[in-house]
Amino acid sequence: MNARNYEIIQAFNKFGLSEYEGRAYFTLLVCGRLSASNLWKKSGLPQSKVYQVIHTLTAKGLVDLVGIKPVQVQSKPLYEFVLNIIREKKRLVSLIDRTVSEYREVFANNQMFLRVI
């Protein structure tokens, strides 16, 4: 793996993908639809991990299974991946903001002694 590819895999890692997931997803983005055997050959994944990685990426909504015999997989567009991350981050920020507001109200009204965390 060259330095540029390593940097891409590290970027995917910062978005919550493991090294193997990042390598597989990046390979599918570049190559399009691949069989499981071609995915491990082109991505450099250990052959023993390819089905596990496909399953994980499918569960995360990043790829679709498009063939069964042989297993074939295709990535969903990168923008969908990024938009899902943005939506999830916004949801978490909103949750934190609401919770902070609720706790501030409780403390401001001295309604009860409450341990914050």
- Which CATH top level class of the largest domain fits? Mainly Alpha
- Beta-strand share of residues: 5-15%
Number of helices: 5
Task: Tell me the total number of β-strands.
Answer: 3
- Globular, elongated, flat, extended or rod-shaped: what is the shape? elongated
CATH architecture of the largest domain: Orthogonal Bundle
- The unreliable regions are none
Give the domain tally. Answer: 2
The biggest sheet, with number of strands, parallel, antiparallel or mixed sense and barrel status, is:
3 strands, antiparallel
The CATH fourth-level homologous superfamily of the largest domain: Winged helix-like DNA-binding domain superfamily/Winged helix DNA-binding domain
CATH topology of the largest domain: Arc Repressor Mutant, subunit A
Termini Cα gap:
44 Å
Class based on secondary structure composition and strand pairing: mainly alpha
Mean pLDDT: 90
Q: Give the helix proportion (percent range).
A: 55-70%
Q: Walk across the major sheet and give the strand order.
A: 1-3-2
- Taking Cα atoms only, what radius of gyration do you get, to the nearest Å? 20 Å
Q: Please write the string of helix (H) and strand (E) elements.
A: HHEHHEEH
